[in-house]
């Protein structure tokens, strides 16, 4: 059953005694004055059984602790300790000085419920509602900026040998569970005990500079993996109740072999050249991927995609993408999420050149949405780029820098783009040929299906309004920097779903911090006056006097006895 906080204020609550000491204008003070309407117990009623089970910790208290945990970037253990010993947390949560509100396991269980019931968007909306209540957000039509930043995965990233070994260990653990046996003992019976050391490469006594010896070890690992997969198939047939769990571990091991191993004629194996496009990099976090923010900045993990109101800088949409996903992926979904969360209409979406590709522009145009982003530049070495050619889509004609035109075109890919080609003889005799094309073939120009949208974007971006909008996009860099400051650069969890909850809590903290700062600048009281607030103000002096007399009584009691 759901526990609730009493509407009656506690006489010795820390926020009554030490609010001014901690600071009304701090985030702790803001939470102390606004927690009753910011996080309410009834908002989380769907997470609990209405009339059965033990009474839980009040969800309004639990979510407030998670909020402070995200703000300070501490572990669950440290968060619980702060509720016991940190006066700032006591004030923010409205606890008595000696009160211990919740255990670590209960807090973890509450967060798990938030993830399972997908309440991330509802929590983000809470921060936006608070911004409207405080008067920080007033507009119903906004412009949003989109961008991404890397999130380093929690899972250990290992080389092919140890990655395959971990895949074998994971499948061994699932099969050992079926036999109700310890994994190490089960593995020893199957002749797989070497995989339960700290590192398979450390156990193998070979010269790792010798290619033949490396391939011999890899062949043995793949052989053991295939034998284990055959055994797993028999286990699935014999134990259908465990078939799904076994199948998941077996599928991961098969994928690790397929992505990293190439079988040579004769049965030997070697590591594949290059990197598989969607390569799994970690057994403990199978959703992590090789990613790159730019050509020189590589990482392993996920991407945080964020939508920010360009005027208020409030975060209205968040998503966690695969590390190897394009920045533009789910850009429309972020806009839709922002409209739901902020209850607004997005009049314009702004992004960098990653959002300026043809398919993304087409998706926005199909919904009659305005997208402002730089058009990706396709370089051509030292030769004339495509932008030096005049493309007339009405006449289906292209004019080159030398003044020559062509109407000859063919489909490069069905439904995707057209390729125009200039006359070979004309190109051969052209005085600008050395600046236009290499080799003997004539110059060709590819035209996208969305070429007209790209032309409109180039023209708009060259106007004063377009340049101003692209400059204003910098606000999202500030918000991403704030999220990184709140700890999203490294995931605390395995998998994108849980990592998204971490991102949501950081976004909620970032939004509430903006609102608290706004209230501080305005010099207005942060909380909503209520009957209880007025009552507390009137008897505040009496309460403090009562506390002093009580402590004196306790201190001098032995002398009076």
Verbal overview:
About 50% of the residues lie in helices and about 15% in strands. It has helices spanning about 15-20, 25-40, 60-70, 75-85, 85-95, 105-115, 120-135, 160-180, 185-190, 200-205, 210-240, 245-260, 330-340, 360-365, 425-430, 435, 450-460, 465-470, 475-485, 495-520, 530-540, 540-560; strands at about 140-150, 260-265, 270, 290, 300-310, 315-320, 345-350, 370-375, 390, 395-400, 405, 410-415, 415-420, 445-450. It folds into 4 domains: about 15-140 and about 510-550, no CATH class; about 160-270, no CATH class; about 290-375 and about 455-485, no CATH class; about 385-450, no CATH class. The protein has 22 helices and 14 strands. The model is unreliable at about 530-540 and about 555-560 (pLDDT under 50). Strands 1, 4, 5, 6, 7 and 8 form a 6-stranded mixed β-sheet that branches. Strand 2 (about 260-265) and strand 3 (about 270) form a beta hairpin. The chain is an alpha+beta fold. Helix 1 (about 15-20) packs antiparallel against helix 2 and helix 11 (about 210-240) packs antiparallel against helix 12.
Note poorly predicted spans: 528-539, 555-561
Strand proportion: 5-15%
Q: What's the alpha carbon Rg, rounded to whole Å? A: 31 Å
Give the N-terminus to C-terminus distance in angstroms: 46 Å
Overall structural domain count: 4
The share of residues in helices is 40-55%
Biggest beta-sheet profile: 6 strands, mixed
Which shape, going by the Cα principal axes?
flat
């Amino acid at each position: 059953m759901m526990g609730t906080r009493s509407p009656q204020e506690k006489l010795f609550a820390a926020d009554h005694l030490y609010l001014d000491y901690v600071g009304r204008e701090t985030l702790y003070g803001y939470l102390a004055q606004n927690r009753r309407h910011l996080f309410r117990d009834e908002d989380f009623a769907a997470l609990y059984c209405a009339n059965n089970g033990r009474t839980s910790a009040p969800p309004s208290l639990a979510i407030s602790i998670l909020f402070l945990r995200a703000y300070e970037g501490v572990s669950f253990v440290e968060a619980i300790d702060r509720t016991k010993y940190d006066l700032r947390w006591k004030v923010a949560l409205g606890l008595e000085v000696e009160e211990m509100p919740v255990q670590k396991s209960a807090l973890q269980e509450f967060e798990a419920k938030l993830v399972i019931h997908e309440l991330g968007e509802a929590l983000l909306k809470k921060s936006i509602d608070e911004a409207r209540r405080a008067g920080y957000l007033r507009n119903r039509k906004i412009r949003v900026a989109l961008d991404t930043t890397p999130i380093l995965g929690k899972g250990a990233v290992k080389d092919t040998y140890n990655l395959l070994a971990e895949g074998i260990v994971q499948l061994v653990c699932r099969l050992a569970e079926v036999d109700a046996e310890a994994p190490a003992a089960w593995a020893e019976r199957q002749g797989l005990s070497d995989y339960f050391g700290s590192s398979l490469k450390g156990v193998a006594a070979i010269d790792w500079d010798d290619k033949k010896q490396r391939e011999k070890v890899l062949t043995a690992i793949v052989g053991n993996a295939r034998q284990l997969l055959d055994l797993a198939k028999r286990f699935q047939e014999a134990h259908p109740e465990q078939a799904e769990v076994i199948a998941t571990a077996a599928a991961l091991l098969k994928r690790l072999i397929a992505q990293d191993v190439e079988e040579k004629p004769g049965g030997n194996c070697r590591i594949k050249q290059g990197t598989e496009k969607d390569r799994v990099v970690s057994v403990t976090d199978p959703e992590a991927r090789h990613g790159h923010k730019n050509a020189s900045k590589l990482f392993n993990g996920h991407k945080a995609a964020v939508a920010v109101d360009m005027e208020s800088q409030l975060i209205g949409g968040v998503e966690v993408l695969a590390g190897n996903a394009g920045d533009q992926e789910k850009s429309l979904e972020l806009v839709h999420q922002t409209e739901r969360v902020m209850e607004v209409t997005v009049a314009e979406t702004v992004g960098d050149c990653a959002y300026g590709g043809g398919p993304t522009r087409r998706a926005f145009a199909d919904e009659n949405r305005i997208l402002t982003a730089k058009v990706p530049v396709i370089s051509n070495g030292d030769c004339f780029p495509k932008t030096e050619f005049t493309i007339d889509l009405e006449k289906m004609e292209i004019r080159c820098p030398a003044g020559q035109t062509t109407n000859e075109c063919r489909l490069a890919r069905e439904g995707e783009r057209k390729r125009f080609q200039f006359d070979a003889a004309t190109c051969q005799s052209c005085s600008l040929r050395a600046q236009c094309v290499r080799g003997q073939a004539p110059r060709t120009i590819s035209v996208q299906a969305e070429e007209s949208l790209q032309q409109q974007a180039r023209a708009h971006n060259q106007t004063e309004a377009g340049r101003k909008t692209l400059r204003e996009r910098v606000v999202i860099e500030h918000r991403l920097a704030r999220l990184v400051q709140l700890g999203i650069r490294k995931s605390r969890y395995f998998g994108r779903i849980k990592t998204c909850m971490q991102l949501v809590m950081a976004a909620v903290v970032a939004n509430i911090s903006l609102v608290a700062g706004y209230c501080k600048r305005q010099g207005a009281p942060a909380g909503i006056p209520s009957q209880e607030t007025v009552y507390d103000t009137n008897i505040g002096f009496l309460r403090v006097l009562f506390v002093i007399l009580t402590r004196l009584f306790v201190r001098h009691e032995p002398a009076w006895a």
